[in-house]
Amino acid sequence: MISNDILRRLRYTFDLNDDKMIAIFKLGGLETSRETICNWLRKEEDEGFQPIKDIEAAMFLNGFIIEKRGAKDSATPDPEEFLTNNQILRKLKIALDMKDSDILELMENENSKISKHELSALFRKKGHKHYRECKDQFLRNFLNGLQVKVRP
Question: pTM for the complete prediction?
């Protein structure tokens, strides 16, 4: 899944306007303009579309965590150079203070059954023997389920 699509889905799901998006990016450590955000939010086939870099998307997700959960006493975490679906899922889980049962319920509502063991494998460190890569379709279903829950 491309990061621009995730940004669009989160903007719609949480009804984030341009000013709110700019503020979230700033919380994550990135100063950006309304024009840049608009270019990131365009569809791939639209003129002016600009792909968002993984590090910029990571800054948004870090800012989203701070927006939803509040800032920690320590500094903002360093953004990842390359984002995987597993990291995106983990950051959203943290930002929304979700438990495994919440995610399982979301996925069940999307007719995408997953066991607790399969879910925990998505949050393991890469290289762990039970690590499982989060596929695009799982992340899409998660975001769809989240949208239905937040904006029915």
Answer: 0.92
Measured distance CA(103)–CA(113) in Å, rounded: 11
Residue 6 backbone phi and psi in degrees, to 5: -65, -40
Torsion angle, alpha carbons of 77, 23, 67, 92, to 10:
-70
Extract the residue ranges of the chain whose pLDDT is less than 50. none
What pLDDT is stored for residue 147 in this prediction?
94
Close Cβ partners of 81 (under 8 Å, ≥ 6 residues apart): 54, 55
Q: Which residue has the tokens 């920690």?
A: 72
User: Residue 136 — φ and ψ, nearest 5°?
Assistant: -55, -40
Q: How many CA atoms lie within 13 A of 100 on its CB side?
A: 10
CA distance 80 to 63: 13
Alpha-carbon separation of residue 63 from 41, 66, 77, 105 (angstroms): 17, 5, 10, 26
Question: In degrees to the nearest 10, what's the CA dihedral of 69, 65, 114, 106?
Answer: 60
- Return the pLDDT at 10: 96
**Number of Cβ atoms within 10 Å of the Cβ of 107:** 19
Instruction: Please tell me the predicted confidence (pLDDT) of residue 70.
Output: 85
| Count of other CB atoms within 10 angstroms of residue 59 | 25
